[in-house]
Amino acid sequence: MSEQIYAVIMAGGSGTRFWPMSRGDTPKQFLRLLSSETLLQQTMVRIAPIIPPERVIVVTARAHAEQVRELLPGLPPDNLLLEPVGRNTAPCIGLAALLVRRRDAGATMAVLPADHFVSDEEEFRQVVVSASRLAAGGRLVTVGIRPLRPETGYGYLRLGEHVGEEAARFVDAFVEKPSFDTAVEYLASGHFLWNSGMFFFTPERILDELELHLPRHAAAFGRIDQAWDGPEVGQVLEREYTAMEPISIDYGVMEKAAEIAVLVGRFPWSDVGTWAALREVLPRGENDSVSMGQVVELDGRGNVLVADGGLVAALGLRDMVVVRSGDAVLVCPRQRAQEVRRVVEALRQAGLDGYL
Amino acid sequence: MSEQIYAVIMAGGSGTRFWPMSRGDTPKQFLRLLSSETLLQQTMVRIAPIIPPERVIVVTARAHAEQVRELLPGLPPDNLLLEPVGRNTAPCIGLAALLVRRRDAGATMAVLPADHFVSDEEEFRQVVVSASRLAAGGRLVTVGIRPLRPETGYGYLRLGEHVGEEAARFVDAFVEKPSFDTAVEYLASGHFLWNSGMFFFTPERILDELELHLPRHAAAFGRIDQAWDGPEVGQVLEREYTAMEPISIDYGVMEKAAEIAVLVGRFPWSDVGTWAALREVLPRGENDSVSMGQVVELDGRGNVLVADGGLVAALGLRDMVVVRSGDAVLVCPRQRAQEVRRVVEALRQAGLDGYL
Fold this sequence. Notes:
The structure is a homodimer of 356-residue chains. With 356 residues, the first copy, chain A, is α/β, with parallel strands linked by helices. Helices cover 31% and strands 26% of the residues of chain A. Chain A has two domains: 5-270, Alpha-Beta Complex (Spore Coat Polysaccharide Biosynthesis Protein SpsA, Chain A); 275-355, no CATH class.
């Protein structure tokens, strides 16, 4: 059994929740949201001490190949997997499993979203190593985050029995984003973790699970695998991938699979789902606001103020989001940050595509 | 007695209440706040049908001479009076009176702020002509605006007896900006008008009033007048003007003078004192918001949204001001728009003068 860990960084996301900083060709993973590095670069740097670039696979949309190459010059060219179209996480992971199995059938895959926030990276890496070891034995493994608040924006994992003598527990159930009252119960019970979207398994094991739960996807992967080294691999990938049903690994596999093990991540974590989430991950001022870039705030409280170039001046604001980026400004109450896509939709309908 | 009317446009203001559109060298009168023309240009255009450019005098700060010449190419060069420093309205008007007296001692002066909003220009011009006729007889005349709401941002005029058979009344008192409760009483009483800051008199009459109420200023004007055609006029003006106490015509003369006549202006008017005032002068949408430039508003109400270039997107805002101009954005509740100068002060203290 190999002890090798392959990181599979899922960088295929396309989203509008960080408009106006996120425009057509710069989804969240390519934004310098939390530092001078993009979230994708931070993800790669975070695992570098335990996984060298030769064993990092990045999966992204074909349209973003050039961006990824520029952001990650140390990534070997053959480690960049390009999706002809986005089909959610199950196809992305299946494709990566084909590649990892070819490289080292005994390796384990650490599947990591490219666009999350993590701090206490040492703790994070220890969990990744522990989860990968557990997965090397043939298990499906995930990492859950000890919840800090009754968050309604995350999925949860219900904890089950202990896994032998390991620190791991079995996942009793994957549960969807709860109502606020339910989230309060989850938090109080101590039996629930946030679903971090990180998964660990051998390529053989996840391909077996795809066979079991998503047989049509598995058949397509079989055809892609057969064509892998041939002259028609591009055409086959295009055809098979495009025809696949989009489905997440959570919904397509994890919610149906038996005996998934979970390790508890105690590191600060966020999926950074909206502008409002910056308040969970950036240091807050005395007035409970967070700011990035050149910001002047007077008599404010609880705001998220972002100047991606230029200046944002906020006077007397409460619980607001203000983002200045390029030629556009977004202002909304923090509680409505998840509705930013409505702004994007309105711009599209108004024919103002130049701002998208 | 000449029937000539000279317009004296007071364009010397410097202010920060329209930051970030108004920067160091573009005070309000030079902003395209309400249309594609600046407020100064609108003022000149508004009186053009009754007062030709040869009889328009513009008084501005020396630093703004070039701007005025560019904005008003039709203004004869000798009709631009440059103040070495700003000394409020009494010195500005005294200086203009010296010039008008030299041109036509029997003319009347219609003193008009350069940065106010007026619509129904026909009605406005009729009032200017009526007020000037009344002033030609030697009276001090002003125009008051019939109040539309209990505005606390304006000074008021209390109406006294009728002036003979004229439509005019005497001003019983000039009163300072009232509290809200007092403003409600003023509105209900029907005896009060908004002080529009427009004044009408012959040059001789206003110079007599300056002599009476501001003798030191009058003495300085005497010295400036003596030097007017000589080689040292520049030096004398510089010395005398700089040494003058800054004082408004309202406080220095009008509040002390006897038998001021007032005509009622029934045209829509605003001094456009803050960003919030745009809601009083621009057409409101169904949701009671006003916007300028490229604005997308969703689920909003009562906002003032200004995109001076680029785009402003507002989601779920109530009674807010958002202004995008150049490299800066301002966001504040409408009720606090009068505090924008605090932002400017904070920028100065933070050494961020590049944004001022």
